[in-house]
Write a structure and sequence with these properties.
Length: about 325
């Protein structure tokens, strides 16, 4: 059972209102007496009408739980009354017991087909049958209304579930799309980090190579200026000062180059660098670009043949440094 779902009630837990539409006052009094003797007056309220028009007015005003409807009325008949009563209430809520005369069973069947819940034949029922019939149709009508409310609530819950499922599906698709974008972004970041790592390695190798290549000529210049200061005689004081400044600058430059080489060497961790297949042809192209000034000045020409070993699994930055150092020394000497 659904939470807070409506539950059917026994029809006589509360006071029930009975509408008697009968043109014969004696019959109306008989029906009242029969029902009161069986159920007690404290459980029943009666409304009485002697014509169809009066019955319709009372039905609209009082909304009875059950209608005892005589088929033969002065201004209409039972079938027309059924149609009029059904027009005054929601579908499947009309509770009518049709009362017909002797030999009118065919009319009673037509009444059942047109909305009556049961029928009785005059002078062929007693108070027990009337009580059971009225109680049965009220229970049947309340159960029918309970089912209608329950089905409506069930439809509402099903609709809410369908909407929730659609919302959940949309949210799941949104999460999937965001995860896809995030994965793509992470891949792009990984590629860029790898490129940045290669660039940093290349920069470290360049600084190390440059400091290594500059160390010897700078040291030679430092030694030369030291010898000049030791052996030369300067008559102009400004010349001596200039020479001293140049010597100090060269020593400072030598210290800087030495410190750069030491820092780069300390930060390089060959054991932590990943190896990869390195194409020698790519390194040769880079070497030509880096050494273009030296090649132009010396009119040297570089020729490569990597047919036997086109690639080598190695740390790319380290192999690039080795190739550049070898080629630079070959051009220089």
């Amino acid at each position: 059972m659904l939470p807070n779902s409506p539950t059917p009630l026994s029809p006589f837990y509360a006071v029930k209102r009975i509408l008697l539409i009968e043109d014969d006052a004696a019959d109306r009094a008989l029906y009242r007496r029969y029902l009161t003797q069986q159920l007690g007056s404290e459980h029943l309220e009666f409304e009485e009408a002697s014509s169809g028009s009066e019955g319709l007015a009372l039905f609209t005003a009082r909304q009875p739980d059950c209608v005892l409807l005589d088929y033969s009325l002065p201004d209409t008949n039972g079938l027309l009354m059924l149609a009029s009563l059904e027009a005054l209430c929601p579908p499947d809520t009309l509770c009518v017991v049709m009362i017909t005369g002797r030999g009118s069973e065919t009319l009673a069947v037509r009444a059942l087909r047109n909305g009556a819940l049961d029928y009785l034949v005059k002078q062929q029922f007693d108070q027990v049958m009337l009580h059971k019939t009225v109680m049965h149709v009220i229970e049947k009508n309340e159960w029918r209304q309970y089912q209608a409310r329950y089905h409506l609530q069930l439809q509402t819950v099903n609709q809410q579930l369908r909407e929730s499922l659609l919302s959940l599906t949309a949210s799941r698709q949104e999460v999937t799309d965001k995860n896809t974008h995030l994965h793509a972004a992470n891949q792009e970041i990984g590629v860029r980090n790898q490129q940045l790592a290669h660039t940093n390695q290349d920069l470290d190798n360049f600084v190390y190579a440059a400091s290594h290549d500059l160390k010897e000529p700078v040291n030679n210049l430092v030694g030369l200026f030291s010898e000049l200061r030791r052996t030369a005689t300067f008559h102009d004081a400004d010349e001596a000062v200039v020479l001293q400044l140049v010597d100090e600058s060269l020593r400072s430059l030598s210290t800087t180059i030495h410190d750069l080489a030491a820092v780069v060497q300390e930060q390089r961790h060959p054991g932590q660098q990943a190896t990869e297949p390195v194409a020698f042809a790519e390194l040769a192209t880079e070497a030509r670009l880096v050494l273009r000034p030296e090649l132009t000045a010396t009119q040297a020409r570089l020729t490569f043949d990597f047919a036997d070993l086109p690639t080598l699994p190695y740390v790319r930055s380290s192999l690039r440094t080795i190739v550049l150092n070898l080629l630079s020394n070959a051009v220089k000497y």
